[in-house]
Amino acid sequence: MKKKYSSAQKAPKAVEEPKVAMSYRLSREKIERAQRVLGTPTATATIEEALDMVVFRRELADGIDSAFGLPIADVFPARASRKRR
Fold first, then answer.
1. CA nearest 49: which of 35, 29, 59?
2. End-to-end alpha-carbon separation of the chain, Å?
3. Which of 28, 26, 49, 27 is nearest to 37 (CA)?
4. Can you give the pTM of this predicted structure?
5. Does residue 58 belong to any structural domain of this protein?
6. Is the residue at 22 inside a domain?
7. Which alpha helices (H) appear in 1-85, and where do they start and end?
8. Greatest alpha-carbon span in the chain
9. Distance (Å, rounded) from C-alpha 67 to C-alpha 55?
10. pLDDT band with cut points at 50, 70 and 90 for residue 6
């Protein structure tokens, strides 16, 4: 019987969103640490991957709450008033 999927099959490409140039002041060391952890080739890829992970975390927590009624404690709650340095 022929295999349905080959082991060397590539994942489907994600739909690319339009990109816009933006500028942020970020710690070079923090970006480099995140880049090593995530294994991303560039600072931009690192930031995009990290943002994707944050959104996925929220979707996962909301899904668990919706499916099972189990509230997930938000470790990093959004604060209306943040102190600026």
1. 35
2. 65
3. 49
4. 0.61
5. yes
6. no
7. 28-38, 43-68
8. 65
9. 18
10. low
The answer to whether 31 and 46 have CB atoms below 8 angstroms apart is yes
Whether residue 6 lies inside any domain: the answer is no
What is the rounded distance in angstroms from the CA atom of residue 56 to the CA atom of residue 64? 12
Between CA 67 and CA 85 the distance in angstroms is: 40
Task: Take residue 5 and report the two structure tokens written for it.
Answer: 């999927």
Q: Which domain holds residue 64?
A: 28-68
Read off the tokens for 12: 């489907």
What is the tens place of the pLDDT at every residue in 12-56? Answer: 566 778 889 999 999 999 999 999 999 999 999 999 999 999 999
Report the number of distinct structural domains present in the chain. Answer: 1
Output DSSP code: residue 39: T
Cα(36)–Cα(46) distance, integer angstroms: 9
Q: Is residue 38 part of a domain?
A: yes
Angstrom distance (rounded) from CA 76 to CA 69? 20
